[in-house]
Amino acid sequence: MAEAEEQETGSLEESTDESEEEESEEEPKLKYERLSNGVTGILQKDAASCMTVHDKFLALGTHYGKVYLLDVQGNITQKFDVSCVKINQISLDESGEHMGVCSEDGKVQVFGLYSGEEFHETFDCPIKIVAVHPHFLRSSCKQFVTGGKKLLLFERSWMSRWKSSVLHEGEGNIRSVKWRGHLIAWANNMGVKIFDITSKQRITNVPRDDVSLRPDMYPCSLCWKDSVTLIIGWGMSVKVCSVKERHASEMRDLPSRYVEIVSQFETEFYISGLAPLCDQLVVLSYVKEVSEKTESEYCARPRLDIIQPLSETCEEISSDALTVRGFQENECRDYHLEYSEGEPLFYIVSPRDVVVAKERDQDDHIDWLLEKKKYEEALMAAEISQKNIKRHKILDIGLAYINHLVAKGEYDIAARKCQKILGKNAALWEYEVYKFKEIGQLRAISPYLPRGDPVLKPLIYEMILHEFLESDYEGFATLIREWPGDLYNNSVIVQAVRDHLKKDCQNRTLLKTLAELYTYDKNYSNALEIYLTLRHKDVFQLIHKHNLFGSIKDKIVLLMDFDSEKAVDMLLDNEDKISIKKVVEELEDRPELQHVYLHKLFKRDHHKGQRYHEKQISLYAEYDRPNLLPFLRDSIHCPLEKALEICQQRNFVEETVYLLSRMGNSRRALKMIMEELHDVDKAIEFAKEQDDGELWEDLILYSIDKPPFITGLLNNIGTHVDPILLIHRIKEGMEIPNLRDSLVKILQDYNLQILLREGCKKILVADSLSLLKKMHRTQMKGVLVDEENVCESCLSPVLPSDAAKPFSVVVFHCRHMFHKECLPVPSMSSPAQFCNICSAKHRGPGSAILEMKK
């Protein structure tokens, strides 16, 4: 249960229950402060008996018969001496211009605060209640009610006289009344009644539940939530009543309205006051507890609860114990709860104290979070509501959060939060860095320092770098790698690193970091030298990025030793900066590296390094024989005699065979295959490639006395040489492995050839016939001959100008046309006629297709 915080310069009363002083983790819904100023002086000499609240001011009644008008801060604006005894109730209309007051000596006064109209009456019994019409300002609503032993309604007649009528009597003293609109609700010893002032009818009677309680000690509390909802609190019972219109068919002799109890539940303590808060209720409770030591009852601090009414029960939202002055001597009837309908303000009135409760705003919420050391939540709440908060600043909360984390020893989290909280405030950043330095935690804040906007003083960054250099080389290297080089004085850091290298000259981390520092300082030659010494992978990136090819001409061997693949690619990509000749010269003492370079060059372009092809023969033979034969095949610039000499010296048979065949000595090459390699399949393949009959003859002669070779020839010779030539030369009685299978294969290959020939013949015949038919159809088509056509011989129009004259025209398939008389007369030996033009151009026979006569 949350404790209420009273804001007052004086000390508050100590609680009688120490357990209630313990702070709760649940945030209270309301905040509290004492109404001070003039109220303090009043209650030092007098005691509060009642109070009513208007949106603009307060009216406080005392036991000595005084009525004070106060502003919302508790300052006295007016004072009325109404009686010399207790003021029982004060009533204000909605305008706040008329006030009704009743006292224990029977006096009733209704008067205008700003006008001269008044009503004064003294009754023969104490008047407990008074209520003026909410719209008393209107001339038609000059009404008020008073209650003692009976409830009287006073109305002003047309002659400005007050006329009274009894609304109810006979059920004990009237102790509570509330007027809302046209409805008056009051409570007597028996229960609660509601009267409709318009219809002049009493519409309900809600009986009291616990009749054992004395009504004068435990009075009924009434409040209107709206114009039709009445909330009744009596003893420990709460009822929510709704006034509803009765249907016309149900009227008969009944009132036009009726009341339905929509919610009813019991509370834990005695109710001293009620007030609505949206759809919830604010309940002021009188608490009695039993002492564990004496086992006797005592008056505990009153409680202000916010509850959510349900149909038959309620849900507690919050509950605060209030430390009011003199609570130990107070009774249930001594407490009152008044509220302002304009804003959610609740006034807890007791004889010696007036406490104001109001809903907590976002500033209060942040206060509570800070008090509970929930800084992260407070920071988030301030960021979300930064337009609404008035007393807090996001930066102040953030700095308090950082200090809290540092105090707890959570340095990494504190440093990380600096990024968000300090933002672009360079001065605050520098202040926090020095604070972290004082506690020896510069390493914690280093990853989060700003590196762009803002930029701190170079001294800040240098201070952190020196801290890492003294204790953590890897961390120092990380910062140098991540931080831009313009954040600090590079020469200062370089000198510091060199001083440390004097103690540990082989430290790779420091050397690498020094190279990076040299790079930032554009001292690329020193950086390159360190990278090469370390054989660092970034050396090639450094060369490319800063165009350091002029610096590496004498370091090619080092680069090749480090990573020959990358080095060669880089050198070949930048031939314009480092020539091929220069690279080959530098690698002269390292032929294995020279070979790697020249081999990659040859792969890229077979002609660029032609001047080195002779050298490459020896290099391939020495370091890379598998690529020698492909090189010999692809190169057209290497000297064959030199290559043959080297291959013969090293007994490279395959390479020698290739060179001999390329030089035209195929028979010698075949002999080497047969005699040195003893590979009949390779020999056959070689003979197939050369496609030379003499080679096949040499191969047969060499193989005729070697059965395994004969088998190989029988299996592969069929498509190139007639197998009969080989079979006839086999000696009788020679045992040949797999002879039957070889002969079967020969026959199968022969049958396959016959089938292929027959298939091709059928296809050829079918195609020839199809083309012949197509040609015949084409030749059978007519040919258009008109006046525009000319004789290809005499160049005159083919058709005569006079169509009546006889004529004869010959048209060939080539579409050339002649007069018949312009063609040579066919001889007896060759009666066919041919187009003179096409025959002369060797276009083939152009036999006549049409002869036109008339």
From TrEMBL:
Region (Disordered): 1-32
One Pfam short name: Beta-prop_Vps41
Superkingdom in the source lineage: Eukaryota
Localization in the cell: Cytoplasm, Cytosol; Early endosome membrane; Endosome membrane; Late endosome membrane
Residue ranges constituting the RING-type domain according to the UniProt record: 791-839
GO molecular function, one term: identical protein binding
Gene Ontology annotations for the cellular component aspect, listed alphabetically: AP-3 adaptor complex; clathrin complex; clathrin-coated vesicle; cytosol; early endosome membrane; Golgi apparatus; late endosome membrane; lysosomal HOPS complex
Keyword terms of this UniProt record: Autophagy, Cytoplasm, Cytoplasmic vesicle, Endosome, Golgi apparatus, Lysosome, Membrane, Metal-binding, Protein transport, Transport, Zinc, Zinc-finger
SUPFAM superfamilies per record: RING/U-box, WD40 repeat-like
CHCR repeat segments: 568-712
Biased amino acid composition, Acidic residues: 14-26
Membrane topology: Peripheral membrane protein
InterPro entries the UniProt entry points to: Beta-prop_Vps41, Clathrin_H-chain/VPS_repeat, TPR-like_helical_dom_sf, Vps41, Vps41/Vps8, WD40/YVTN_repeat-like_dom_sf, WD40_repeat_dom_sf, Znf_RING
Biological process (GO), any one: late endosome to lysosome transport
Family: Belongs to the VPS41 family.
Function per UniProt: Plays a role in vesicle-mediated protein trafficking to lysosomal compartments including the endocytic membrane transport pathways.
UniProt-recorded name of the protein: Vacuolar protein sorting-associated protein 41 homolog
Species of the source: Catagonus wagneri
